[in-house]
Amino acid sequence: MGRALLIDPLVSFDLIGEADLNRCLVEWGHQMGPLNRPLQYGGGAHGLRHNGELVAVTSWSTLIRENCAGMNYLPRDTTTELSRVCAIRPDLCRVALRMWREFALPSIRDARGHEWAVSYQDAHLHSGDLYRFDGWVKLGAFRSGGHDPRTGRRGRTGFVWGWHPDKVERLRRSKVAARAATESKPEESENG
């Protein structure tokens, strides 16, 4: 039997403070910039470290509105928003997302009684593969109104991705969302 080495871990995933989160979001060029919602009002942040240096960050927040994108089954009191995922290199976002889902989210769920985790995704900036390849399901679409106060851009189209620990519930909601999206599309006439 070998002897244990007394060295720092090569990789770790731990709670981080708001200052570290926002520093990384700015330095790494996150499209939405720093998180301006105080974490003490229902949120937190985690960091993936390699040799002690942050290489990816995640943050979770309480929903701002009473429910997620008008979906009544996703109320503020039972839904966690994954509000930021960012990394020094894009391929590390997938690692950070999986670490957050597997290790941070269960603790959040146990402490707060939240069933769903959701993340809003700008359809013009992202393909959705980050969430899709991690087992998240598309729950709906939204169009933000007005202008984005951070960038001045006109409202954009986006998607809501969701994670529920029960795969059957995830798939059920995904099918409901897909059916609703199909039914809401205007029919094309034969004349185009």
- Structural class, by secondary structure, is alpha+beta
Shape: globular
CATH homologous superfamily heading: Gcn5-related N-acetyltransferase (GNAT)
| Major beta sheet, strand line-up | 1-2-3-6-7-9-8
* Percent in helix: 25-40%
Count of individual domains: 1
Please, what is the average pLDDT?
A: 84
Order of helices and strands: EHEEEEEHEHEEH
CATH-scheme architecture: 3-Layer(aba) Sandwich
Q: Beta-strand level of the residues, as a percent range? A: 25-35%
CATH-derived topology: Aminopeptidase
Distance between the termini: 74 Å
Tally of DSSP β-strands: 9
Largest sheet: 7 strands, mixed
Q: How many helices?
A: 4
Task: Output the radius of gyration.
Answer: 18 Å
Low-confidence stretches: 186-192
CATH class: Alpha Beta
Description:
Helices cover 28% and strands 32% of the residues. With 192 residues, it is α+β, with helices and mostly antiparallel strands. The chain contains 4 helices and 9 strands; from the N terminus they run βαβββββαβαββα. The chain is globular. It has a single domain, classed as Aminopeptidase, CATH 3.40.630.30. The strands form 2 sheets. It has a 7-stranded mixed sheet with strand order 1-2-3-6-7-9-8. It has a two-stranded antiparallel ribbon with strand order 4-5.
